[in-house]
Design a protein that fits this description.
Distance between the termini: 26 Å
Number of domains: 2
Order of helices and strands: EHHEEEEEEEH
Oligomer: single chain
CATH topology of the largest domain: PH-domain like
Strand content: 25-35%
CATH architecture of the largest domain: Roll
CATH class of the largest domain: Mainly Beta
């Protein structure tokens, strides 16, 4: 069998709570500046510190996931605001106990005692994520792998543990 390599980019949906938090942080920062001008200069200093906090926190609110698949190995990176990349997870497909679409009956045995790590987009119109179950660490990973050659390679490597529905 030949080598299989693919990179898949998935943009994460910005949640309503994240949007609200951004607006709240901007509002509090602006309020500190106004109070600094009108009431007390220490509030102006607090506004300057909040600008620094906003500068650090805001880029972490915009995420993209990149899955890299190389011959049975999956590497998951998160990219913050298209500037900073961080490796979140990597595992071999041979370590996986089951692969099935989200909501499949094949995942009923793995409902409890498993931590869910969601690396999918979160959009309603996106394809249903595949759930990869890793029994040694008691984790389930939600990934939106849409590349046909990657799906075919995973199906070949996990023929007994790969479930279509």
């Amino acid at each position: 069998m030949g080598d299989c390599y693919a990179e898949i980019m998935v943009k994460r949906k910005t949640s309503t709570s994240t949007k609200f938090l951004k607006c709240l942080m901007i509002g509090i920062t602006g309020l500190c500046f106004v109070c600094g001008i009108i009431v007390h200069p220490f509030a102006f200093l607090a506004g300057m510190i909040l600008i620094l906090v906003d500068y650090i926190v805001f880029p972490k609110m915009n995420k993209e996931y990149e899955y890299t698949y190389i011959n049975g190995e999956i590497f998951i990176d998160v990219i913050y605001s298209k500037l900073k990349r961080k490796r979140k997870e990597s595992f071999a497909v041979s370590e996986i106990a089951a692969v099935a679409p989200l909501g499949s009956k094949a995942l009923d045995a793995f409902q409890f005692e498993y931590d869910v790590r969601d690396f999918s987009s979160g959009f309603e119109d996106s394809p249903r994520p595949l759930v990869f179950v890793k029994p040694d660490t008691k984790e389930k990973f939600h990934l939106e792998i849409t590349e046909p050659k990657v799906l075919q390679d995973i199906k070949f490597r996990l023929s007994r543990n790969y479930h279509e529905e």
